[in-house]
Amino acid sequence: MYAGLDFGTSNCSIGIWKNNSPKLLPLEGESSRLPSALYTTRPAIETEEIDQHELKSRVDKEKRKQRNEIKKAEEDERKIRIFSDAELENIVRGVMRREREERSKAMQEKKSISEGLYSDTETIFGESAILRHIAEPENGYFVKSPKSFLGADVGRYHIELFSEITTRILAFIKSTAESAAGKDIKNIVLGRPVNFHGTRGEKGNEQAIGVLESSAIAAGFDAVEFLMEPIAAALDFERSISKDQVALILDVGGGTTDCSMVKLGPSFVQSRDRDSSVLGYAGDRIGGVDLDIKLALRKIFPYFGRGSSLRNGMPIPNTVFHNAATVNDVNAMQQFMSEKTAREIASYVAQAVDKKKVERLQRLQNAKLVLRLNRSAELAKIHLSDRDPIQLPLSYIEKELVVTINRDGLRESIERELGAFLSLMKEVERQAGVEPDVVYVTGGTAKSPIVEEFIRSSYRDKEIVLGDAFGSVASGLTAWSHRIYD
Known about the structure:
- The chain has 486 residues and is an alpha/beta fold.
- Helix content is 49%, strand content 17%.
- It is built from 17 helices and 16 strands.
- The strands form four sheets. Strands 1, 2, 3, 4, 8 and 9 form a six-stranded mixed beta sheet that branches. Strands 12-11-10-15-16 form a five-stranded mixed beta sheet, with helices on both faces.
- Helix 5 crosses helix 6, helix 7 packs across helix 17 and helix 9 (318-325) crosses helix 10.
């Protein structure tokens, strides 16, 4: 059996060909969308027994110390508390238990997510993983949007780590989809952006494709083909039109935004080679996650001290807030969670004019809540699609903390990103040398009224079609899998 699989930055979907059309399969409950997230519990640390020889040695030492103190007190004619042998042993046992707990805690903190993945621990996926992380941030490891890191400039350890995470998620999707379909899925078409997130250009793209392909094979698939995501979205749109058209396709995803100009319609639909119908394409490493980051920086982090001054008149460096917000940059995350940053934040608290705000930043770091705060920013963006303004509760930071955000605030925060979307569309028009008959928009970020209004205002004389925000790419990949595997 074959399938189309959209391994997205924010969500994953998989579809099979049934009754002459794509059918997306449920991956979590009744939902065909699986949030791209994984949570694995920390491996257990074996309880360290109290060494009886060390206990006896330390008790004997305390007895000698007490005898000396009694003798000195008698010479000085002072009264002191005298402990029995049993009391001294209990005191020493308590000290040794605390020391044991501190050693266990230190060992636990030194363990990495890779040890969790390879140990006999629980691993969960999707929305369940997000909720588990929110409930137990200290008891496990959480990874969100692993696709954002596949093309990044990171060392061999992180490449292997994200390869394993990708394999685990793909294997879960395969198993869940096969249960729903009642058949083994052997061959897949995987979507890929024009450019993966990162700064390495084509080298980063090659690295990401290599990780995805090897992870898919490791997950149990026999054959893997790739198709650019904007082309997949175009193929999904093509199933709904009855005449040939030139379509400008904009796919605003979680981590990247891709655009293509494609000739679609009855004259092309049966072709197994669509290269000649693609008139132009371009992609940028900007997506919904970047919008969440900008919204957090501009509208949420001022409540954590961003823009605040220290008593010497200097502002708190913006770098600490940038590192806290940039959840799609593994180096920035490591920098924010480092002991060095913890010391810096402590010094900002001591020097802050508005100490309460900076104490929130300190709690954000100490309690490892940066990914949860990013989730709050994402939810704020989503809820602004339905109402304006919204009240964003941050009670996990501070009991009564609520941030008010409106659409104008979101629009101001993402102005540069909106401009980047338009630049991509104009670049593809330039490559194609023609104007589109229709503009087809898909991707979860396109659900935002602000994004939709911006596109409509930029193409007032064109028909704008909004596709299935979360399913069009997976449906197009499924259609292509039917074309090449059937």
